[in-house]
Amino acid sequence: MITKFDEVIVGEEDIRRRVLEIAAKITDDYRDREPLLVCVLKGAVFFTADLVRQVSIPCELDFMAVSSYGSAADSSGVVRILKDLDAYITDRHVIIVEDIVDSGLTLSYLRKNLTARNPASVEVATLLTKPARQKVDIKCKYVGFEVPDRFVVGYGLDFNEHYRNLRFIAALPEEELG
Ligand code: PRP
User: Fold this and answer.
1) What are 85-102's pLDDT values in tens digits?
2) ω into residue 42 within 30 of 0, thus cis?
3) Is 37 part of any domain?
4) pLDDT at position 175, please?
5) Which in 58, 87, 118, 153 has the greatest CB count within 10 A?
6) pLDDT at 174
7) What is the model's pLDDT at position 68?
8) Domain range holding 122?
9) Is 155 part of a structural domain of the chain?
10) Using CA atoms, how far apart are residues 40 and 120, in angstroms rounded to an integer?
11) What angle do the packed helices 12-29 and 45-52 form, to 10 degrees?
């Protein structure tokens, strides 16, 4: 396991600033609508925690855990729900909170699944997108940063469960990927 990263992709201060901006937009957009923020475990946990604390209108928080079949670096689009929402979302304004949209397959599944429950609306807030790898067209209302086609870790994103606790987003050196 490495402890020093030479390539920081998004620094701590930039994350903090962008989270504030997105929270301000959500606060504006959802006034009087009490959105339900759905954190997709585990990667989105830090983004969600920081974001929701900066949203200054009433809102609720719920969690989903999904597992996508495939290797650590490639999701397959076949998604299994490990933990479903506690809340019923009929007529609710839902915001799915993700750490990264890579191929977009996980989010595409999640969005369809939640839309089938007849919410009032479903939007997406993702900290990162990786346009070079996107396979399906997904409209994300709130995007933090576009990242290059590198394996990125930190601020919730892992490699074999390591590095989630970094305060910044860094590229994993190619040799670590094996
Ligand atoms: C990551 C990320 C997204 C998904 C994106 O989760 O949090 O849910 O992969 O990939 P995709 O756009 O190619 O579908 P992961 O399965 O690594 O689980 P984790 O959040 O628990 O680390």
Assistant:
1) 999 999 999 999 999 999
2) yes
3) yes
4) 84
5) 153
6) 86
7) 79
8) 13-147
9) no
10) 20
11) 60
| pLDDT confidence of residue 72 | 56
- Around ligand 1, the residues with Cβ closer than 6 Å are 40-43, 68, 75, 98-107, 158
Any domain includes 94? yes
Q: How many residues does the chain have?
A: 178
Residue 82: give its domain's CATH number. Answer: 3.40.50.2020
The helix/strand/coil state of 75 is: strand
- What burial letters (b/e) apply to 48-85, b meaning 16+ CB within 10 Å? bebbbeebeeebebbbbebebeeeeeebebebeeeeeb
| Model pTM score | 0.95
> 92 CA to middle of ligand 1, Å?
24
- By DSSP bridging, strand 8-10 and strand 169-171 are antiparallel
Could you tell me the strand order of the sheet in which 169-171 lies? 8-10, 169-171, 152-153
DSSP state of 132: G
The number of angstroms, rounded, from the C-alpha of 95 to the middle of its chain's C-alpha atoms is 11
Q: Considering the domain boundaries, does residue 156 fall inside one?
A: no
pLDDT digits (tens, 9 = 90+) for 100-145: 999 999 999 999 999 999 999 999 999 999 999 999 998 999 999 9
Q: Give me the catalytic one of 28, 29, 50, 102.
A: 102
Ligand 1 centre and the CA of 74: distance in Å?
9
